[in-house]
Amino acid sequence: MDTSLFLLPEGETGVVEEVFLPWETRRRLLDLGLTPGARVACLFSAPSGDPRAYMVRGSVIALRREDADRVVLCRG
Fold this sequence. Notes:
This protein has a single domain, classed as SH3 type barrels. 17% of the residues lie in helices and 42% in strands. The protein has helices at 23-31, 65-68; strands at residues 2-4, 13-19, 39-45, 52-56, 59-63, 71-75.
């Protein structure tokens, strides 16, 4: 079942299927390793729930909901 990166529960992992963001943001995330096929884990979120921290390819990145909602994952 597909879901957005933002909906991935803390401590769970998923695999990136596609990144639907404007070119500049998409390019930056691809450069950081958030590419189709990459396994990503949700580490934790800010007390307000936004942004959230994710581990991808050995790096920790923080994304706001508006960006994480546009990254499609398959769970697993």
